[in-house]
Amino acid sequence: TCDVCGSMAVVPKPKSLSKWTPTTRPFSRIHIDFFYFSHHTFLLIVDSYSKWLEVEWMKHGTDCAKVLKKLVAYFARFGLPDVLVSDGGPPFNSHYFTSFLSRQGIKVMKSPPYNPQSNGQAERLVRTTKDVLKKFLLDPEL
């Protein structure tokens, strides 16, 4: 490994993650979360079956309408999921957000507050994505 990658290595701490029922087809359950990097906000969307990851820059804010606009574009590419899992934070807990998804036949599930491990699919990929972005900032030739 190179020095940059070695300096970014994280020693995982054992945690008891929530057990999600395995999905049997792609894009049937997606996990979403926000993360912040270098003064920018991003929306992370991950498929629980394939682990397909998409990261959307939330350039114009994170209100409900802007998040739904990103999700509608995602749904147009991959189809409607059966389940969407979030941490339940704003805007994911707004009536407009949950009722829009409900009208589409999408079940909304929330991980327990203050327990990011419960949304482990998204939380783990947030860390991985941040690590990759940091490495590129430290060594753009990677």
Automatic annotation (TrEMBL):
It holds the Pfam family rve. PROSITE patterns: INTEGRASE (PS50994). It comes from the Eukaryota. Residues 22-142 form the Integrase catalytic domain. Transmembrane segments: none annotated. One of its GO terms (biological process) is DNA integration. InterPro entries: Integrase_cat-core, Retrovirus_Pol_polyprotein, RNaseH-like_sf, RNaseH_sf. One of its GO terms (molecular function) is nucleic acid binding. SUPFAM superfamilies: Ribonuclease H-like (SSF53098). This is Uncharacterized protein K02A2.6. It comes from Culex pipiens.
